[in-house]
Amino acid sequence: MNFNNAKFKAAYGTFKQLPPPENIEIAFSGRSNVGKSSLINKIFNRKNLARVSATPGKTATINFYELENIYIVDLPGYGYAKVGKSDKKRWNDLIGGYLSAERELALVFQLVDFRHPPSADDITMINALIDGEIPFVIVLTKADKLSKKQRSERREALKSELPCAEELTIIEFSAETGEGADELRNIITVISEE
């Protein structure tokens, strides 16, 4: 699979705009500013495939990227406090609608900032994935920002912070160093070949 060939397909601002499923989909989910766009760019060896912003909550649409026979789906970041109620509702409807729809959703990469305990919104999302029986992998972003000691402490804390922690696949990732990128590419490749 040539990850350099990923290309932007379309962005949808409401659930009703989503096209019927055509291909297997792999979604990326996480709170605002967790590093979804940076992760997507790193995996696909591109600087600007997904737009990176210093402003949290910038991705307000579901963005579809095409890679051979699969779609990569970038869900809007959740949990950003400085957006209005109507925007929050639209994002919740968009994310919730997408996850509960009859789609070819093979996997969700659920991003959590490694430096901090998962937020209440992260836990809500993880529980929704568990309850919906949607396969997912936890990706701990910004791993390069932690010392070895801090990583070890966070790993230990996550055992009690994450629901069903012992049963989860957890990958530590850094958009700066590329740590974890090959593991994510391998998972995507395996799914595309199923």
List descriptors:
194 residues, alpha/beta, Rossmann fold, seven-stranded mixed sheet, 7 strands, 32% helix
Strand content: 15-25%
> What is the overall shape?
globular
Number of helical elements? 5
Instruction: Identify low-pLDDT runs.
Output: none
Could you spell the SSE succession in H and E letters?
EEHEEHEHEHEH
Give the helix/strand layout.
Layout: E1 7-12, E2 24-30, H1 36-43, E3 62-67, E4 70-74, H2 85-100, E5 105-113, H3 120-131, E6 136-141, H4 148-161, E7 170-172, H5 181-193
What would you say this structure looks like, in words?
By secondary structure, the chain is of the alpha/beta class. The chain has a single domain (3-193), classed as P-loop containing nucleotide triphosphate hydrolases (Rossmann fold, 3-Layer(aba) Sandwich), CATH 3.40.50. It has 5 helices and 7 strands, in the order ββαββαβαβαβα. It has a 7-stranded mixed beta sheet with strand order 1-3-4-2-5-6-7, with helices on both faces. The two termini are 13 Å apart. The mean pLDDT is 88.
Task: Describe the structure concisely for a colleague.
The chain is an alpha/beta fold. The protein has 5 helices and 7 strands, in the order ββαββαβαβαβα. It has a 7-stranded mixed sheet with strand order 1-3-4-2-5-6-7, with helices on both faces.
